[in-house]
Write a structure and sequence with these properties.
heterodimer; A: alpha+beta; flat; B: Rossmann fold; 8-stranded mixed beta sheet; 11 helices
């Protein structure tokens, strides 16, 4: 069988029954270039969500309801020694700017807010609403 | 069966469905598929019927699936997965399985077109033959990938391109086919309904884990709000799904062995259906005075069905 590289050379050389391996090395979970993880959908969005780590309570609602799996999760141990997920950021290559994460965020002052695409993250964090000014 | 604890533990699962697919922003398909494939630690073989999910997650030369995945025609997702399962069983019997320590689970995904209408004969056949697989129907109530035609899952009153609203028509005229009950009538060991989102995530994940650990054909009907054709803002996906449960338009229940029905979530205060209908552009014409009888009709049907489910749960037969 032809390798995916050969099949990709021109459109008329595409063969029937193409196989796209998503891992270069399945044991080490090394993603191959065919994995859509490497594809960028960032140009779809008009507004981007900005994540404020200080207000986050790690409920992980945004992780479970993100349709594009763009929340970066770090595994940490809690006080009882159980593993738990800590949200550390957003993968802006995969985010399409739907805003579901902002909608489900349960904190009184939301720890995720939508800002126009061109806003710098530091600038957005400075504009964050405070308790008196929600 | 994987123990589904709290969300903090569940979020540590390495994702087997990657982002970068081209589903619409705010599409619920991504949420449902991620929860289902993360609800087990066993290896998975997945077949997907033609539909939004298949078209958007495998655009050449990219794939979003970190598991064995097979694209198959509109009508035979269940036939494809039952063939794979039969082959795996035969090879294991001859001790030629690829890894004897690992269990393999078989899952088929289909949209509502590929499940309610076109793929129903192969699903019915695979269920009748008793293959060990899970079929997940991503029910977005119409053929949404091709521009929103009606399917047999479209509810009464909904506007679609083939059941348009206008001076003489109030939209779709036939009621939604009750596929979950039809699958239960096949005698499936496990049948359930589910919705995506942060409120009912555990319900969906537990149902998926239970279905995957059950031997025999199992079926999950998951409501997947479609932001493009139901006409609501992308950020409201989860709210719409929750409202469908709160108004009992899409009640959450499970049926074991074809008869034992359990309602897994009972809303404390049942909301009127207007709450759900008014949030979607496809029902906006029902709020004109001449169409108000359609809403009353929908409310009556929803009340009747909810009563029927509660009675059935009480009776336990």
């Amino acid at each position: 069988m032809a390798t995916p590289k050969e099949m990709m050379s021109t459109w008329d050389k595409i063969q029937f029954g193409a196989i796209l391996p998503s891992f270069e090395n399945p044991e080490k979970k090394l993603k191959s270039k065919f994995n859509s993880f490497n594809y960028k959908v960032a140009d779809w969005r008009v507004e981007k969500p900005v994540f404020n780590r200080e207000l986050c309570i790690d409920c992980d609602f945004c992780w479970v309801s993100c349709p594009d799996s763009c929340f970066l999760v770090e595994e940490v141990e809690n006080k009882r020694g159980k593993k738990q997920a800590k949200i550390v950021g957003i993968n802006y290559d995969l985010c399409k700017g739907c805003g579901v994460c902002v909608d489900v965020c349960p904190t009184p002052i939301k720890s995720l807010l939508m800002f126009p695409e061109f806003t710098e993250i530091d600038e957005a964090l400075n504009q964050w609403p405070t308790k008196d000014n929600k | 069966m994987k123990n589904i604890g709290n969300l903090k533990e569940f979020a540590c699962t390495p994702d087997r469905f990657q982002g970068g697919h081209r589903l619409c922003p705010g599409c619920a398909h991504g949420m449902i598929v991620r929860e289902v494939v993360n609800a087990t630690e066993d290896d998975l073989v997945i077949s997907t019927a033609t539909g939004c999910l298949e078209v958007c997650t495998a655009i050449y030369p990219y794939t979003s699936w970190d598991v064995s995945w097979l694209h198959i025609g509109f009508e035979n997702a269940a036939a494809g997965i039952s063939g794979a399962e039969a082959m795996y069983k035969a090879l294991s019997r001859k001790n030629r399985s690829y890894n004897e320590d690992k269990k393999v689970k078989f899952v088929a995904f289909g949209g509502d077109g590929g499940t309610y209408d076109i793929g129903f004969q192969s699903l019915s056949g695979a269920t009748e033959r008793g293959h060990d697989f899970l079929y997940v129907c991503l029910d977005n109530e119409g053929y949404m990938n091709t521009g929103g035609q009606r399917s047999s899952s479209t509810p009464i009153g909904a506007h679609t391109t083939t059941s348009p609203r206008g001076r003489v028509s109030y939209g779709e005229k036939n009621r939604k086919k009750d596929l979950t009950m039809i699958m239960a009538a096949h005698g499936c060991p496990y049948v359930a309904t589910a919705v995506p989102g942060s409120k009912h995530w555990k319900d969906l994940a537990q149902k998926a884990a239970k279905a995957l650990s059950t031997v025999g054909p199992t079926f999950i009907n998951a409501l997947s709000p479609c932001t493009t054709e139901w006409k609501f803002k992308p950020q409201d996906t989860v709210e719409i799904a929750d409202l469908a449960v709160e108004t009992c338009m899409f009640p959450l229940y499970e049926i074991e062995d074809g008869h034992k029905l359990t309602i897994t979530y009972k809303p404390k205060q049942k909301l009127p259906v207007e709450e759900y209908l008014s949030r979607q552009g496809r029902f906006s014409h029902l709020f004109k005075p001449e169409n108000s009888w359609v809403i009353e009709e929908i409310q009556k049907e929803v009340d009747r069905y909810w009563e029927y489910l509660q009675r059935k749960e009480e009776a336990g037969v």
